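Sequence in, structure out. Go.
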Amino acid sequence: MSQRPTAPLDLLDLDSSLDEEERQIRSVVRQVIDDRVRPHVAGWYEDGQVPARELAREFGKLGLLGMHLTGYGCAGASAVAYGLACLELEAGDSGVRSLVSVQGSLAMYAIWRYGSEEQKQRWLPSMATGEAIGCFGLTEPDHGSDPASMAARARRDGDDWVLTGGKMWITNAPIADVGVIWARTEDGVCGFAVPMDTPGVTAREIRHKMSLRASLTGEVVLDDVRLPADARLPEAVGLKAPLSCLTEARHGIVWGALGAARDCLETTLAYAGTRTQFGRPLAGFQLTQAKLADMAVELQKGYLLALHLGRLADAGRLRPEQVSVGKLNNVREALAIARQCRTILGANGISGEYPVMRHANNLESVLTYEGTSEIHQLVIGQRLTGISAFA
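Output:
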């Protein structure tokens, strides 16, 4: 007996958990991704190029850049609305979502939370419209998961600061107008709003990536970069400042990974329903249905987890280790879904005509950046046991 197919996220009627405004924001973002990203993203990925500035301006018109922040031209949307936007963005491509989340949850949030009023007025309005692009320089060539060992230094020279060092794997760096750069000082780790055209700053694009190819990634070199005293973010002292920015961005990843998983599963359901082998569609085989059912269950669970964390964030009660639970689970499961979908598509699963392998490759990076699975396991383990296993 045949029934009308159900979309993966309709299985548990999860839309009933959203209010009308949240559904409208999701619908708007989904439409712009359908119109502006899906027709082109396979080519961007294959070419390793993306019109990032053009996309940023379009997203700025929709209020997506720094949308969960308030004031300075930001939309002041809820954490759940921001999460739903990230889900739809990453359903298009992880690199597209990275453009938005690095801009809003890392660079803009750092200035919004830790910057002076002058810094906020200078940068945030133009970043909210996409006219100015930001990047976030924490990771270094030799220091990824251990930012406490960063080698970048900032020293006082009269009234100025002089920065030296390098940052690696920095999203948006090749086109950024401002970089939020973290460096060690005599007083601990501090943040600086660095105009990227400052003498001594060099941004080199990292090429030949096998993942996140529709995203601009760079290495930033700081060669005795002289900055005025007011370049320092006055409220950002200590490693907790950049880590709090990562918590903001990780919340978007919790949602975003679900978008990649949903796109894979929807693609696979459509394919399995029309691809005929041994006289029947692939979707009619028990083994295929078992795979589809397991993937749909994990997608629902991940969505419910993301929604719970979003509601906690909106209530002001979200803790970093809770975000670690979401990032660990949802990215891990999204990657498993992408890989399983590839098996159902067979050889077509590796074709750029379908998004599955592109999502799988992207999720390999998402699994690593802004906290590897192992780091999030240790964060959760520390909360459970009260014992730090980092050192």
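Check: The longest helix spans residues 240-274. The mean pLDDT is 96.
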